[in-house]
Automatic annotation (TrEMBL):
Molecular-function GO terms, alphabetical: aspartate 1-decarboxylase activity
Chloroplast recorded as keyword: no
Protein name in UniProt: Aspartate 1-decarboxylase
EC number per UniProt: 4.1.1.11
Organism: Mesonia maritima
Active-site residues, record numbering mapped to chain: 25 (schiff-base intermediate with substrate), 58 (proton donor)
Gene coding for it: panD
């Protein structure tokens, strides 16, 4: 049996932009992606603490040390600049693998940068 478990989590980042005219996705500072073991194109769940919205999209890297968290395309309608998000990716693995697995958890500062 395979189960979904949390692979990566970036906890409480602030939306820095929303670009409705982009083709889709979320742009994340590449430093945050690397720290959370998230790769370009990976499916990600976005939880908006301000309005309760939950959505899924894919990740594209933003400039390092920029603190960028930009929702693109239709997802831009689900956020406002300054909203606080939790970003989560999942992996499928066996129950035995899951018992030993440790997710990458990242807790950025108020400027969306690593502490």
């Amino acid at each position: 049996m395979q189960i979904h478990v949390v692979k990566s989590k970036i906890h409480r980042v602030k939306v820095t932009g929303a670009d409705l005219n982009y083709i889709g996705s979320i742009t994340i500072d590449e430093d945050l992606m690397e720290a959370a073991n998230i790769i370009e194109g990976e499916k990600i769940q976005i939880v908006n603490n301000n309005n309760g919205e939950r959505l899924e999209t894919y990740v594209i890297p933003g400039p390092r040390k920029s603190g960028e968290i930009t929702l693109n395309g239709a997802a831009a309608r689900k956020v406002a600049k300054g909203d606080i998000l939790i970003l989560i990716t999942y992996a499928m693995m066996s129950v035995e693998e899951a018992k030993a697995f440790k997710p990458a958890l990242v807790f950025p500062n108020d400027e969306n940068r690593l502490q």
